[in-house]
Fold:
Amino acid sequence: MNSTLNKYDTWLTGKDGPAAFVLREHLMPVEGNDGVLFPPTFAAGDGFSGGYNIDRFGDDKDDENVCLIDSVGSQANRIEPIFAEGECAGLIPQVVIKAGDKEINILEIGHRAGDALARCSELQDELHKAFKGVLMGNAMALAKIAPTSLVFGVWDSRDTQAKLPRLVSSTVRAFNVRELKRGAVYIPPVNYSELEVFSEKEKEKAEGDKKNPLAKRGFVHNPASNSHGGVIATGGVRRDATLSLAALQQLNAGYDAKKTLNLRRYIFSLSLVAFTANTSAYLRQGCNLVVDPDKPSELVKVYRNGQRKLTKVSHAEAIKFAKVAAEEFGIGDNRTVDFDKKKAKEDVKKKE
Structure:
């Protein structure tokens, strides 16, 4: 048997192997460790006032805190598209959904195989049967259509309620941050009141009132004070990623041991490719992160008894294994399917 193919078999079938791979990667802004970085801002709701997501561990503003820089979902959305290009594109079926003039790869849609766009396309019946298979302990059909849904997790929340956990999860956090504020003002290039677009009185009334139509449309001075100005992470920035082998061992192809092993090999290989991929250093405006050269990354195998062993797995090794595992598994077909407006209208009418 191909030694590359069965290289990880004991990890996929037995209980003596590691429970997970865990990566700890120290990052910093391109400007340096004392540089300013901009976390994402979140809307207010559920008792949250809006803004940066900072968990504080004390009453004083200088107490320890943790700031979310990139969430699990956001990280998955950054990593998953690698399977649409280069060598990685040949590891999975390329399924594209055509909606009007747009063509969207299933890798790009938010809820993956459980998304409304996929559910209301020509894939509807196939996906329904595939998710039913998951509920009965057989993930083969879903792996043939959308294997990365098994890697990054999926919930068919609007239909069968089938749910698969993330095998690969990644989060970026900053520690002990100091929040900054910033201010700015927009100055129009000309005085529109002098051009008699509106009166001087209307101008004075509009300046400083962001809700005023003249301010909204950029005809008057518009100050923006005390807005979010980023953070300085005095405790550093860290990316923590996990590849759960314990969760992977819950994947089955019914009661067929051989098919189950091939399924696990294939999904593990894709997970390993995703896990070892170099994610984008650019997260958003003002948040361009790179690896801290003074704090080496740490990849460990964590066993069920808590034992931790340093290990190394390169992206090239992962791709080599994935090519062999994918060939043995039998990749699903590439195809382009149409979004069905009629199905979407019917779906809207369904009761929860």
Notes: The mean pLDDT is 92.
